[in-house]
């Protein structure tokens, strides 16, 4: 049976928690008394996180691109913790910098599988329980490159524009009480940013500095935000 939690404590599920923004969000929510469930592919990093944030938080090695693994993850959480109040679809990949015609079919498939199908997988696994309860907020991490384009990031832009469309389409389908939003986090110094921008990423905020703003902003979202394309305030 799900553990009982104080009513003000939210159950937050975050994908891609092993580093970067997801890791900082996990720490930020936990520090404010919320219960965090997270996943990433790297087993050692998942273990590190579980040691840093012990129960009632819980972390699992799950690849969001694998629909059956995501389903098992969701089912396990439902049995141990209950239905999430907030689902943050944060896990994503950045493409190798190259024009679209130089991106291999396998590289493109990986980008779509993780950044788009991975989001759909968690939505498929978690949303029915949120609907049954009648509440919940689903945040799909977009990007400035989900609303604009640049050279050499065509696959990433493709997936983030898709996340914007998916988020709005989901909003049309959700019943009252639930919300789906696309969220541009801003520009933050993470491994992903460094893979695109190199050392110039260092002039941007750290994930921890960003989470100081992002956590309260995410906690402020409710059903009235359904369908919005949002940006973490600067
Ligand atoms: N940093 C920025 O400035 C920026 C700007 C705009 C948007 N964003 C978006 O913000 C989100 C976080 O970005 P970030 O900068 O923190 O990236 P990051 O440092 O590369 O971290 C990405 C996280 O996603 C996980 N991940 C990747 N593939 C996964 C999969 N198949 N299954 C489960 N987890 C997976 C990674 O862990 P494993 O490798 O262990 O799986 C890692 O924890 C992304 O959606 C990104 O597109 C970031």
Itemize the secondary structure elements and their pairings.
Layout: E1 11-15, H1 20-31, E2 35-40, H2 43-52, E3 58-61, H3 67-80, E4 86-89, H4 105-133, E5 136-141, H5 154-173, E6 178-184, H6 191-197, H7 207-219, E7 229-231
Parallel strand pairs: 1-2, 1-4, 2-3, 4-5, 5-6, 6-7
Bound molecules: NADP nicotinamide-adenine-dinucleotide phosphate.
Residues 15-22, 39-42, 45, 63-65, 90-93, 114, 118, 141, 143, 185, 187-188, 190-193 line the site of NADP nicotinamide-adenine-dinucleotide phosphate.
In whole angstroms, the N-to-C terminal distance is: 40 Å
CATH T-level topology:
Rossmann fold
Mean pLDDT: 96
CATH A-level architecture: 3-Layer(aba) Sandwich
Provide the β-strand percentage band.
5-15%
Q: Which oligomerization state do the chains in this entry correspond to?
A: single chain
The best one-word shape is globular
CATH superfamily: NAD(P)-binding Rossmann-like Domain
- Please describe the biggest sheet, giving its number of strands, its sense, and whether it closes into a barrel: 7 strands, parallel
Class in CATH? Alpha Beta
Give the beta-strand count: 7
Small molecules bound: NADP nicotinamide-adenine-dinucleotide phosphate
